[in-house]
Amino acid sequence: VIWVSGGNTFYLRHYFRSTGFETLVHERCGPWPRDANHGSTLYVGQSAGSICGSGSVDIAHFKGWDDPNMAPSWSEGRLPKYGLRLAGPDLCIFPHFSEQQNHRALIETKKSEYSLDRSDIVALADDQAFVWSQSGARGDTSATARRFIFGADGSMSQVASPAPLGPLAPRPFAEVAAEIDEKWRYAMDSAEFRVPSAGEPAVDPSRVVHLVEDDPVR
User: Which of 4, 60, 67, 161 has a beta carbon 3.0–4.6 Å from 9's, enabling a disulfide?
Assistant: First the structure.
């Protein structure tokens, strides 16, 4: 299992790309032909992790909880707007959905603003999970896929059998790992490593955590 928790969506997306983690997930979790030695790992995305695993990280702009400037590549215009697309390029996840906070109207307004009108936006309350299960990959005659929303009470809703997806990793992770950004390597080796924790589901976008060598978290 690869479990990605919450935090700042844009920060996560930046390091998914610059560390090679994006390709690792595609290689381990994405759909592959049945005879391939890949695709047997389960990706679990919580909050921002679910947005990053879906079709677009622009969903994180909807509520305004996440500061995109926390991603080093945002100001340079290099941050990908697309997520890992584990359930296809058009399926997006909107976590922490609440009718009381009028999120349904918010989605309808924002999806046009961010050119997501044609996207399948799956709204999930905090007691729900979206599940995509697939055996084989597009092109396999026996490939099958299934999607549904699983509730904390054990219920299943919106059950469907979509067309199976094709493989997502164009290159092996071993090749991509050799090209990891040198700035990231330096940051990991440095005495101070700044980790933003603001974002989904944080309320204060300015909050950060500093991890300092030989010093407790503060």
Answer: 60
